[in-house]
Structures are given as structure tokens and as C-alpha cells.
Amino acid sequence: MAAAARFWRKIPQRYNLIGTKCSACNKVYFPPRYICPVCRRAGKIEEFKLDGKGELVTYAVIYIAPRGFESQAPYIIGIVELDGGARVTTQIVDCDPKDVEIGMPVKAVFRKVNEDGESGVIYYGYKFTPMR
Amino acid sequence: MKIGIVGYGVYIPHYRIKVEEIARVWGKNPEAIKDGLLIEEKAVPGPDEDTITISVEAARYAVARAGIDPTEIGAIYVGSESHPYSVKPSATTVAEAIGATPALTAADYEFACKAGTAAIQTCMGLVGAKLVKYGVAIGADVSQGAPGDELEYTTAAGGAAYIIGAGDSLIANFEGFFSFTTDTPDFWRRDGQPYPRHGGRFTGKPAYFKHTISAAKGLMEKLGTTPKDYNYIVLHQPNGKFPIRAASELGFNMDQIKTGLLCPKIGNTYSGSSLIGFANVLDKAKPGEKILLVSFGSGAGSDAFSVVVDDSIDQKRNKAPLVSHFLNPCVYIDYAIYAKYKQKFKVATLP
Amino acid sequence: MRDVAVIGVGCTKFDELWDTALRQLIVDAGRKAIEDAGITGEEIDALYIGNMSAGRFVDQEHIASLISDYAGLAASFHTPATRVESACASGGVAFRQAVMAIASGLHDIVIAAGVEKMTDVLPSETTFTLATAADQEWETFFGATFPSLYAMMARRHMHDFGTTREQLAMVAVKNHKNGCKNPNAQFQKEITIQDVLESPIVADPLRLLDCSPITDGAAVTVLCSADIAKRYTDTPVYVVGSGHATDTIALHDRISLTTLYAAVFAARRAYQMAKIEPKDINVAEVHDCFTIAEILAIEDLGFVKKGEGGKATEEGLTAIGGKIPVNPSGGLKAAGHPVGATGIKQIVEIVYQLREEANGRQVKGAEIGLAHNVGGSGGSAVIHILKR
Q: May I ask the CATH class of domain B3-171+327-341?
């Protein structure tokens, strides 16, 4: 079982897509980076909130689910390119696998991602749905 | 100083199950149920949805519609009878997710299906006393009905969030409220129990009807209004039939009832029920129109509010999805998928 | 810098080896390699052991000492031993540490080994552990599985280049055919394209027969300074190129979803060191953890142009007898994938090929071979070029 702190410290990112941006080169990073891979020590990292809109870059439909996700199978996992530039790995929900396609516009929603067993902490965070 | 609504938002899950499908499983006649309860289908939460996720979505829409800075929210109350944790508030997660933390007070409410309107009353008090600038009141549920219970046809999921404030840019203002509360065991769920129990026909006359009608009458008496003064009435909707009967007994007609009556299409969203119906009225109402909102919570009590629609409605209405956005298109699921999404059976873990 | 040679190799059977523990697997493979090299334990200067996750797979850390101990070296000689971890590239990276130790002049004779015991925990625990090679906080937390990461690469490759589902299947069909000729391979059974397409979906578009299996196994190589290699063997195989590179651990942070730049850069470094080009390679063992991975590999290594890996596979370019035979051992797909051992097993196979000892799967006249070992979804890659 994981200590709750492991989840808790990432709440700003998982709830509200708070990433970082290098004000030297304007590149946006999500999840946040503490050093800009472009500018490195010359970069200036500051907080940056992404707005949760984006486009699906690729996806897979998971039939053999890992622990904690068994009851959701089959489900869609995808990589979404957010407006602003950063990419995230995320579930695409409220969408039939046959209706999903590369390039489709998606938006972030707030969902239960996993839980630390029946008695543990519930992990909430972003997932994405088709823009309707 | 007028106290009222500066923003509202609703959320109803994407999935539906029809009465026919549930009746098929239990060998019941769907037409008898549809006629008896005046319900066609109900909203079902996805496997990753609960009261917190529904509350967050509704609250985010409310903030968007209000156009306020969420850090100016001074209080948040989440009313539900299906909080995901027994101990640990839903309200803190919602506050964090809407960017309202940390300078605010927060708590969870439970009063069966009327915890959301109780939250509104608390926010009215805090705003009226100028203790907070804005308060967020949420009513949301992923309600439970035991498989095979009559409740299973109606127990649904959804929620609504209202941002209460004062001043001139209100969507609607409260003329007043009147609450009617007694100790009436018509419906309950003991700690640790997965499903509630209810008193069957006892939930009607001594519970729902007595409390809703008494609260509405009490309010109209207090304000000196009559049913004719209201363009709309919205009641708690445990099924389609009860609110129509209660409103009729109060002297309202179908034209006043129908806009706020969503139960036939989404089921009983418990703490969300009257508040989603109320949102649907706000989606359509014109400035100056008057609404009577009456909640009901088993156990038992009713909160009745007299609401007047304000000028800001036209400018704010389309800043967030309307209730109709959630009614179509939706995805119909069968009972097996419903049972899976509602985790009514234990799923095999991989070896 | 000194030249380095491989003078001995050994490998266990790759399989579900229910009756064999990790410490025995490595001793079995080690004994074969040492006998093949004709060295004594006393001559071994150091051990480098590739292992991804003994801690999770058998609840045992500190396995470098354990292995030195059970190899009979620790108590007698107190031989230095180091465990090397780079997920599924652990073996290849361990081999590189051994090469560097000898090239630097620090050691003369070094063991590079790899071992993984994957069946001592339940399969769900095994797959969870494999997925720890991905970003735990930003990929697997959200429900991504390891197959799904490669499935997303496959989807994008199909979308961008028109690679077909059948072409993916052909990788598995070819590697199963090769595996039939490898007595150490986990699967000794030919399969058809239809078998692949009808196997259960794991992460669409990938199916069960697109995936490498869960395997126990160990592989060991004995390396020495090239100038003393002939003392031990008439057929030393020289390590002429070694390249190692990293990339972002999360797939979503890569600039491309259809190129593993870690492999591209590792290959570039290895080719430069060997002063050869892709066309000079006669045989390759590549990291086909999933069928799409072999298609990406032959593109990233420069055997074919980007996007043409599927077509090249269909045209038989990578079959034994083709222009550039790939995975004559059966690859990870058919020979099995005990993750830490895989990178070493690839070297073992290339050594057999260059010594012309690969009975039944020999690539005729192979003089230069390449081993391509990838960690995670491409967060690391290590490539070695060997020459007889």
C-alpha cells in the first residue's frame, strides 16, 4: 500500500493540470519539470495552468487491465496533445472504442482514476472525453 | 441587499438504463412501472464517477457561468447521501479542484435528498451576514437501490452546484425560504450498509406529501403569495408522479410543473433532484419570472424557496452547458453493464 | 582503449522454469559460459549482472553479492560484482559495463550476465513490475499498461505509414519459425498470421501473439582483453561497437511516437565506433518485446527507411535467407523474454551466429552481427556490434 503523500503532493497537477513553463523559451511542460531540457540552467521555470483542451494523438484499447482497473476493461488509453503543447497519457472516457479516432478534439474531465484498495485513499484526477 | 444565485452548473452522467431493461431482469411488467412511477429511464454513473466527480464537474460549470475568481469563494458545502468516504469530506476535494483553496470553510452535508438545499440555506446565511462573499452549495448523488427493490428503477446519478452571493449581478434572488422538519423514519441507510431501506407506502402521505406541501404552504403564507404568482414550481422528484400530485394539491397546473420535472428522463438524482430541475427552469426562465423550489429529504424535511429571476440570467446562461446538453446524446446500457458500472458484483482480479 | 573479445557464452533454456530459483538459473548459465571460455573462477576479475527487478520478482535485492556467492566466487576470491538495471535493457547495459571495464584496462577478464526469474510471483504482479519501467506517476497511474504503450506506437505507425495489422503479425510468425530451430527458445511452435489475428486482444491493436511472454532464464558471457583472447579460444568474437542512449521515460514526452530515438542514437554511436554502416550488418538480434517493436527497430537501426519496416517484413527482408536476417534466435517473441537476461542472450546468439554454431538457424557467412536491446518503451537503448 502506498503512503497517501505520494498521491497528495501531485493534487495540483492531477486535479487542475498545473504544469510549468520556461519563460526563456516559452515551452510548456506537463507534468511539471524543474529544469528546462531546452535551456537547462539558463531557463526560468514558472507555474503554468493548462486549460484541458486538446487533441488525441494516438490510443489503444486495453482489454487486459492492470490492478485496480479490472472493472473498467475494456477502456481506452490515449496520448493527448494539450493546447499549449504538452502531452499527457490519459484515459478517454464516455466514448465507445469504435467512435474514437486519431486527431479528435478532447477535453479534460474530473474522474476517479484508481484507489488504494477498498479501504484506502481514492485517487482522483484528469481523464478526457470527446468534445461534444 | 438581495441574496441570490451568481452562478449554477449541473452534471448528469452519460449513461442511461431504461425501465424496460431493469423490469426484464426481474420479470416485471415495464408498462405498469412506467405508469406507476412516471419514469422512462435513469442516469447511471460511469465506473469512474461518484459524488465527488459529479460535484466537481457541476461546480466547475457554476464557476464558469458565474465568471468569478474561485479564490473569492468563502464556503463550500457538498450535500449528498453517497459521499465516497464515511470520514473525509467531499467538499475539500471539490474546493481543491475548482481552485478555491485554502482560504475557505468547507463541510459535507447529509439530509437524504435535501442536503443540497440545506447547503443553499447555509450559504444564504453566510452571505447575508457578510461573512463570505460567495458560498458554493452542491447537491449530488450516485444513489443506491438494492437489486430487485422498486427503488432500482429510479435511483440515479447527477448533481447541481449553486454559487450564492449578493449584489446586482444575480441570476436570480431569493425572496425567502420556509423549512418544515419532523422526525419521520420513511427511508434510511445505516452506517456500513450498502443499500437503504424504506417504508414503502409510508414514504408517501406522512413523509413526502406532508413535508413538501407544508413547506410550500408555509412559505406562501409567509410571503403572502399564491400559486398564481409563480411561473414555475420545482419539487423533489423521487419519481415522476409524486411531484405532480403534490403540486396539483397545492394548486399548480402542468404548465408550471413540466419545465422542472426531469425525473422521467433522468430518474431520481437524490440530492441533485430538485436542484437539477431548478437549473432546467433557470435555463429557460426570463427576468422577472418567479419560481417555487421545494426539496424533500427523508427523515424528514422540506425546504421551500421563492426565487425571482434577475436580469443577469440572459448574459450568463450560455457560459456553461445547459441541462439539455446532458440529456442528449446519451448511451443506453443493459443491466449487465449497469451492474458492472455500479460495481454490483465482485470483479475477478488477474491471477 | 583496449579492444575487447567475447570468449565464452552460455544460456539456460528460456521457459517457465518452475523448479529453478534465480540463484540456480544464473549458476547454470554461468557454468556453461565458463566451460565454453575455458577459464577458471580465479581468473574472473569482476561480474556485471543485468537484472531488472529481483526485488519485486523474488523479493531479493543485493543480488550481485548473492550471485557471486552462489557462483562460488565470493567466499574464495571476494570477486567484485555489480548489478546493472535499465529495465529490459539491463542485460545489454551490463554487457557494456563489462566492455568498458576491460577497455579501460581496469580488468582483463570479466563476466557479463543477465538473469530474471519472473514466475515466482503471480502474473498480475509480474505485469505490474514490468510496467514500472514506464513512468509510474504519469503513465501507469492513469491505467496505461506496457502493451498499451507499444499499442499506441503501433496505432500511430499504422496511421502514419499504412503499416497493416497483418504485417505486425508477420513479425511473430517469422520469429516463431526461427524459434523452432533454437533449442533454448520458450516456444518451439510455428504460428500463422491467422493465429495472431485471432488471439485474444491485449491492448488493441496488439493481441496476445504480438507480445513476448513471461519467462525465466539466464545468459552469461565471458569477455576479455582482445590481446589475450586467443589464449582461450580459436574463435573469439570481437566487440567492435558499443552505443548506449536514453530518451524521456514517458512515451508521451517523445518528439516521435514511431521512432525510438534512444535506439537511433545508440546505433549511431555503435556504428561510429565500429566504423561501419547499417548495410554492413549480416545478422541482428533486436528487441521485439512486441511485434511493432521489431518494425521500429529495423527502421531505427537504418536497415530500412522509416515507415517501411512493415513492408520489409512482409517482403521477407528480415527472414533467415533475407537481406538482413533479424532475430534468428526467435527473438523475445519466441525465445522468451526474461527481461534482465534478454540483452545478454542477444549477444549469446550473435556469438553463435558469428562462430557458425547456430545449427538450423545459421545465417550463412555472417561476419558482423548487431544486438539491439531496449529499456521500457524506449527510455533507454543499448546496441552492440560484434565481429568475428
A: alpha beta
